Amino acid sequence: MALEITAEIGVDTDEMLVVTYRIVGELARLRIPTDAEHLDPDRLWAHTCCELFVAPLAGAAYVEHNFSPNGQVARFELSAYRERVPSSPVVAAASVSTARERGVLELCARAPLPAGTDAARISITAVIEDDAGALSYWALRHPTDRPDFHDPDGFALALTLGAVPAIVDAPGPS
């Protein structure tokens, strides 16, 4: 099955990250959660889901956002690689909207930058579930043979805020 996923990212005037994902292809061959389905917020990633990871330039902490096409959003704080800060998924301040039209699913997600962020590393990812239940993992960078969205070397973009905000390619894995 031919599938294409693109993403555009920016920062709005409220310093919210805005990511627009476009999934193009045979959507009928994908399992895409609908508004009528309520999924476990801890496992949005186990179905078709768009994700955004944001980490400060220094340190091991980062935030993971999961955006389901059904409108559900989950946010997880992690203190280090796969070390989740004990709490329930937080939904606060993030939002998602979707539009679907002849072979194109567009998902627009908004997420706040972590407090005090003026520079960050970012990873834009997606999990796609096909009609047989198989998952595929999409990212700007997979630093190893096995997909791992939490790998710090997979954070492919660098964000700086200042007089002129910029999002650029981050250095590759060392």
Q: Quote the CATH topology.
A: Immunoglobulin-like
- Radius of gyration, Cα only, in angstroms? 15 Å
Order of secondary-structure elements: EEEEEEEEEEEE
Q: Runs with pLDDT <50, length 5+?
A: none
Given this structure, which CATH class is correct?
A: Mainly Beta
Overall pLDDT metric:
90
Broad structural category: mainly beta
- What is the makeup of the main sheet? 8 strands, antiparallel
CATH architecture label: Sandwich
Number of strands: 12
In one word, what is the shape? globular
What is the distance, rounded to the nearest whole angstrom, between the alpha carbons of the first and last residues? 33 Å
Q: Tell me the fraction of residues in β-strands, as a range.
A: over 45%
Number of domains: 1
Q: State the helicity in percent bands.
A: under 10%
Counting H and I runs of at least 4 residues, what is the number of helices? 0
Structural overview:
By secondary structure, this protein is an all-beta fold. The protein has one domain: Sandwich (Immunoglobulin-like). It contains no helices and 12 strands. The strands form 2 sheets. Strands 3, 4, 5, 6, 9, 10, 11 and 12 form an 8-stranded antiparallel sheet that branches. A hairpin with a 4-residue loop joins strand 1 and strand 2. The radius of gyration is 15 Å and the shape is globular. 30% of the residues are buried. The mean pLDDT is 90.
